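Ticket #200: bound-state structure for flavin-adenine dinucleotide.
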Amino acid sequence: MKIIEPSATLVDEINPDEILLKLEACGRVSHQSQPREGSTEKFVRMLIKRGHESVLEHVSLTFRIICDRAIQNELVRHRHASFTVESTRYVKYDELEVIAPRWQEQTFLYRKWYSHMREVENTYKDMIEHGARPEDARSVLSNCVKSELYMTCNLREWRWILKQRTDKAAHPQMRQIMNQVLAVFKEKLPVIVEDINYDS
Ligand SMILES: Cc1cc2nc3c(=O)[nH]c(=O)nc-3n(C[C@H](O)[C@H](O)[C@H](O)COP(=O)(O)OP(=O)(O)OC[C@H]3O[C@@H](n4cnc5c(N)ncnc54)[C@H](O)[C@@H]3O)c2cc1C
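RESOLUTION: The complex was predicted; output attached.
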């Protein structure tokens, strides 16, 4: 059994200037106005400030996310996003990869969780060795088993997800992942997320 960390990585090679220029061009069509030298960022900021966010739907980004099965279930509730998810029907695990809860190692709760997961792994492997298909043996797997997925959505939906999922009310693992997504936005497209803070 291998314990791994959750993560989010931008898949696309993006050109932030091109993205902002595209959004400006889309946004200006309504009034048939023309861009001026250095107007792009200001214009996109104005769109967001006025709530004219449908313009942001013209650009989408894809992230590769590593999370546990419970967080995966929460992510797929976002209906404007597209997903491709590792299948526990078609993947046969020789070694389980899991994401640990946030308990400190050596505490009672952690040790209890760890020994239970070793048992889960052994039971799963036994079932496979005795001829079970992964799609049946998976019924013993726990929420903490790792999932890999690709998640694509437009910038309007990313803004909404980041607001919801970096909030303190969100699950700690979800916040850990969404803080990584937010860091990518802060680095590459800061104007899109100026009003969104880490663990806001
Ligand atoms: C802290 C937290 C706790 C939660 N707890 C629970 C829980 O206990 N049980 C549970 O079932 N879920 C729970 N959820 C999930 C939550 O109810 C939403 O399903 C999830 O966060 C997706 O949000 P959404 O529907 O706003 O956004 P998305 O699906 O991402 O959609 C974005 C926006 O598009 C609009 N939209 C999308 N579809 C429609 C539609 N059909 N009609 C009208 N407008 C639409 C809405 O404005 C929506 O906000 C929880 C979420 C959070 C953040």
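RESOLUTION NOTES: Residues 77-80, 157, 160, 164, 169-170 surround flavin-adenine dinucleotide (CB under 6 Å).
TICKET STATUS: resolved
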